Amino acid sequence: MKNIFADIPKNLESEIFERLIDTDNVQIERIISLGQRSPETGWFNQDKNEWVMVLKGEAVLIFEDGSISKMKSGDHINIPAHKKHRVDQTSTDSETIWLAVHYQ
Fold this sequence. Notes:
By secondary structure, the chain is an all-beta fold.
């Protein structure tokens, strides 16, 4: 048994992606951010759907269509495959912990 809030690295100069489950049909990962954001150029354009929840902290997602999702602890969103998006902001005063589920 593990705890999603345990073993947070002290050094968060770069975002941490930890795969928790990895099967042919679904991948579940814990993501830990501290002020990271996507590059200004380019978009995430994933082949799989992604359901993502902010467990701790805050984040802002921007979509190519101009919509914005401001997320705080407990908020979740389903992002369909190939819906272009990027992370515009994550908390800078403490880590943002995400739970992401990638599925067909």
